Amino acid sequence: MTRLLAAASALALIAGTAQAETVLHILHTNDLHSRIEPIGATDSTCGAEAREAGECFGGVARIAAKVAALRAEIEAAGEKVILLDAGDQYQGSLFYTTYKGADVVEFMNAIGYDAMAVGNHEFDDGPEGLDVLLSGANFPVISGNIDVSQSNLLAGRVPPHVVLDLDGTRIGLVSALVMDTPETSSPGPNVIFRDDIDSLKAGVEALSAEGITKIIALTHSGYLRDLDYAAEVPGLDAIVGGHSHTLLGDMEGAVAPYPTLIAGPDGADVPVVQAYAYGKYLGHLRLTFDDEGNVTSAEGQPILLDNSVPEDEAIAARVAEMSAPIDELRATVVARSLAPIDGSRETCRAQECEMGNLVADAMLDRASGQGVTIAIQNGGGLRASIDEGEVTMGEIYTVLPFQNTLATFELDGADIIAALENGASRIEEGAGRFAQVAGLKYTIDPAAEPGQRISEVMVRDGDDWVPIDPAASYGVATNNYMRSGGDGFDVFAENGRNAYDFGPDLAEVVAGYLAAAEDGYQPVLDGRITLR
């Protein structure tokens, strides 16, 4: 059951409630994805012109200033406040490429986070990458459904739950990480995943046994899975989530109310919140608890961190200092686009998109001299759009931040069809495995059962398109992450022949392809993916 609560301004949320036993404000972020600097309209790093025009959003300096202002107001009103992050601080800009998490630690400590959930991208550089965060953070980093006891590096360092003591008011936090992390990142064989719902239930039981009556789930599993948690896990008072980059609220583009209320197994509604991504919004949920720890009201809205929100001057200066070594590379103009290139999550994980076509075409162009006739790129590997006009190397690295390399191999037609089925298998969730293609056409029926969604697969034969031959061998280009089985593409790892995973960086491949369009690149949608 869901219903929309009336919107309330930040000041209204801080109004006193004489009847309430405890009022708790939860400020929260999720999926910052290394957007240390402010972002522009396309969620990539904000350019100089947009900065001058006051058209930037977010950035850690703006988050810091807003958090500090709200904390002061809330505490002055005699109410409680905590700041949480629901994971995926890592990966997404040249800051991560350059600093590999040291920047995240510095700024999260400076802002004053109280706790963070492990996100799947915290494992992008293996357990060693998460170690950077665990070693530097002065707040707990938690996850309830990963067993790290077999890891020499992580054992004993990722608690399943934690208790925050706010001057005698104890708040319990439980956590869960999306179960397909071994497919979407690199936790390694010594990080064991347990059932997420069972793990959350165990965490609630453990905290309840300690006498904790106020329990929040801090999760990185996606909005739809959070709705399951709310309905199936007893004892939760609220869920603060991430992973799906979901915008909730009463603003244009929101997919559901903030908070979304779900009938829990105890009979009470459980509020579920998320705050989009990239630091564009700061979530603000206000919970009122009675004497027994029951939530009697839940209200709030994400706060848009636009130019009206000032930046913390000291943090802004530190960001500028750290950006200096990468500014020259980032500012290098490599091409010009004649129109915006759409790389949005909403399109590239559900249908043919302009950025998917660009990247797949670039891969195919680079590898065509090796007998490659098909290219496949995962939609989740595309992390931003590009504006019309000059295209810089920094923009390309924002689109393709993972330092993936061009990979080539041979694969039978039947396995290519199986790969496309994998790509469509979780389209309803907006999963990143959706297949953007070149040298290939196919039809997808999203309403069909997984495994039966793909039809009319065609390959290019000269100037013509012909049905794919399931028994024939084809040369395929992709990125090394997918080639090794990432995003569920096990068929690439298991059945691919004559694989070579060490081609050039995919960002460099795309930059070269764009640069070759001397009169400017024209984005294209040409019907290579048909939705039935």
What tags apply to this protein structure?
532 residues; alpha/beta; Purple Acid Phosphatase, chain A, domain 2; 5'-nucleotidase,  domain 2; 2 domains; seven-stranded mixed beta sheet; six-stranded mixed beta sheet; 17 helices; 26 strands
Describe this structure in words.
30% of the residues lie in helices and 24% in strands. It is α/β, with parallel strands linked by helices and 532 residues long. The protein has two domains: 10-14 and 25-278 and 292-321, Metallo-dependent phosphatases (Purple Acid Phosphatase, chain A, domain 2, 4-Layer Sandwich), CATH 3.60.21; 333-531, 5'-nucleotidase,  domain 2 (Alpha-Beta Complex), CATH 3.90.780. The strands form six sheets. Strands 1, 2, 3, 4, 13, 14 and 15 form a seven-stranded mixed sheet that branches. Helix 6 (126-136) links the parallel strand 3 and strand 4 (141-142). The longest helix is centred in the middle third of the chain and has 19 residues, at 313-331. The radius of gyration is 23 Å and the shape is globular. The two termini are 31 Å apart. The model is unreliable at 1-12 and 15-20 (pLDDT under 50).
